């Protein structure tokens, strides 16, 4: 037999504690639900793939010095050595690395002329081994041929006449036609320099994980005649850690006119790039756990207090025919009513805080289903917290009615 | 009918064993009005608690309306309490946060009556004790005598066969005590069996039958009109 009416009326005559707990539940729900939403969003962001064979890829920098340093022959010799190394799947010279935090971006446009806006794109300069070393797939058109690859001089303003784009980039440039039709079309870089799309790759992220256009990337068929350059090395599964010191040692000793430095795995790059996000997740999780515990303890405290205060009343109810189950239900139901006020208030506050965050921090609006799930969770927290005190209430002897004054 | 044969009740703590009832024998017939007297600590409340299924006992046999209650679980005992027994307490035991209507409603809800039936019973019970016009009042707004009347209404709203009262007038002045006693007599006349613990011999004399408890035993039985032993005033 549910006794919502009398429980509610009794609560209304004694509301201070109940109202405080309801407010606490509402605030906890507001913070927890918004935190969970942020955590899920960050987590989704962190789960995005770069396109690389992340577990088996690392990179290393080479900085030449001295009059006699020859960038071209150094790169050629280094690549030949690296590619011949047992355990290496492929190796390339590259100007920047996905999800590493630093790189080049340009604008591409479908019409020539400075009056048109370009679409931002991350530039990766690679030779015909780029596809294999970056572990990307050509899903339309074709890879560069060795003859497509040119040498880029330092500070050169010109661009090759071919380009490979990610599917995401193609879809941004040509939103109105099927992406595969873009092969053979011309895009313009530096306002007016034409590049023909020779291939489309499935996926490759830009160096900047927080960039809105993080999926926009292009491969430009060139090697760089720079004194400072970088190599990306993809190894066979499980070989990376063995090969890293080996590669470092090999490059250092093969050419004394340069310094080898900055060797890092892509996994480290990922960790560095998402460090802020993982810190945020940790902080939010901690706050959530602490808040939940504090709220649960508050519920336990209020319920214990009210059980002790009502010992005689409980004994009297038992004398009047309440079973132990009925007493247990009474306190569970009372908590449910308090929680209900709390979670309804909490639903409003949760939406309010989300709107505030959306407006001030350009966060996404929360999916509606977070609200009912949050309500359910806090109801559950309340019921679990009140169960102990309610059990103790149910254990109060009926004779308490006659034995206490 | 309420029959107790050789009931034993022992309270054990780490240090002491208290034999609250030893070979307690009593038969209360349908329609009776029994006043129980005896010195403080003699076992009167213990007897009433056992009779009302608030406490269990160690030995002997207790038949409530012919039913042996010793093997019943909590749920069955609670249900029996709810249906057959009405309780009145010395300090009234009204629930302070509930108005009179909701107070009388408490046992009726455990009984599972529907809302209309409960309302009818609450109104007629409060009518009977003369407080129907104060249904929305809280207990604290009433005098002691009025509170005890509400408690009586609560005890009777479910139409129990037995009314058990532990010093129902103990917290009332003489005038109020007698008016409560008058009410109990009316209720008894209407057919409810009453067992009342009291330390007031003048009230006990008004009952149909007196029993005297000492050291956990029914030591003497008196018919109405006989003098009580001095110890009854202890
Ligand atoms: N819960 C208890 N624990 C220990 N001893 C108790 C308890 N309840 C009652 N007693 C003891 O049992 C005896 C009978 O008590 P009670 O039935 O309350 O007496 P009365 O109502 O006649 O004053 C007393 O000695 C009392 O101290
Ligand atoms: Mg007593």
Automatic annotation (TrEMBL), chain A:
The chain crosses the membrane at residues 16-40, 283-307, 336-357, 369-388. Residues 287-397 form the ABC3 transporter permease C-terminal domain. Residues 20-206 form the MacB-like periplasmic core domain. It is a multi-pass membrane protein. The keyword Transmembrane helix applies. It is found in: Cell membrane. Keywords: Cell membrane, Membrane, Transmembrane, Transmembrane helix. Belongs to the ABC-4 integral membrane protein family. This is ABC transporter permease. It comes from Fluctibacter halophilus.
Automatic annotation (TrEMBL), chain B:
Residues 2-234 form the ABC transporter domain. Keywords: ATP-binding, Nucleotide-binding, Transport. Pfam families: ABC_tran (PF00005). SMART domains: AAA. One of its GO terms (molecular function) is ATP binding. InterPro entries: AAA+_ATPase, ABC_transporter-like_ATP-bd, ABC_transporter-like_CS, ABC_transpr_LolD-like, MacB-like_ATP-bd, P-loop_NTPase. This is ABC transporter ATP-binding protein. It comes from Fluctibacter halophilus. The lineage of its organism: Bacteria, Pseudomonadati, Pseudomonadota, Gammaproteobacteria, Alteromonadales.
